[in-house]
Design brief:
The chain is built from nine helices and two strands; from the N terminus they run αββαααααααα. By secondary structure, the protein is mainly alpha-helical. It has two domains: about 40 residues, no CATH class; about 130 residues, Nucleotidyltransferases  domain 2 (Four Helix Bundle (Hemerythrin (Met), subunit A), Up-down Bundle), CATH 1.20.120.330. The relative contact order is 0.15.
Length: about 170
């Protein structure tokens, strides 16, 4: 358990672009100012680009009638955007979880969402598994999701992704 705790508490040294073991170290005002104007790290750019790719795949599969795939990739798009935000705004490793509420809780002070948006994160989270596994869906995943439902998912997810991206860009 101690090994896990230490690994999960690692953060990133933005200057060196690598993990450090002391996330709680105090920073001087000069260092804070320097970090606020730092360029967007490659890892954050990759998470955001991957989020964009997931939105595209979700939209493409909506058009093809693969609604379970749309649900899954909508979830992935939100998850990847939130993980980018955790790295960019909190300077730490994103938790290895599919729980969108948990991921958002890491950056809730930076990316405020409405109560409805937070509820939606809880609603969308199961799609990470229900959309892929027959034992979780208790049947074929393609039979769980309708066009109306996944259109609603996309409609609700895109503003969250946009707000997340906007906040990251404001910081960098």
């Amino acid at each position: 358990m101690t090994m896990y705790r230490k690994a999960s508490q690692k953060s990133y040294d933005t200057k060196l672009g690598r993990r450090t073991k002391s996330p709680g170290s105090l920073r001087s005002a000069t260092r804070k100012a320097r970090e606020q104007s730092r360029p967007l790290r490659d890892e954050v750019k990759l998470w955001l680009a991957d989020s964009d790719d997931s939105v595209k795949v979700a939209r493409d599969n909506l058009a093809l009638g693969n609604y379970h795939v749309t649900a899954f990739y909508t979830h992935q798009a939100v998850e990847k955007a939130l993980k980018a935000a955790i790295i960019a705004l909190k300077n730490k490793t994103a938790p290895k979880t599919h729980s969108l509420k948990l991921l958002h809780s890491e950056v809730a002070d930076e990316i405020p969402l409405t109560g409805q948006q937070k509820d939606f994160l809880g609603e969308l989270t199961p799609a990470a598994q229900v959309a892929r596994y027959v034992d979780v869906a208790v049947g074929l995943p393609r039979e769980i999701y309708s066009k109306r439902l996944v259109e609603e998912y996309l409609q609700k997810a895109l503003p969250i992704i946009d707000a997340t991206r906007k906040r990251i860009m404001e910081e960098h």
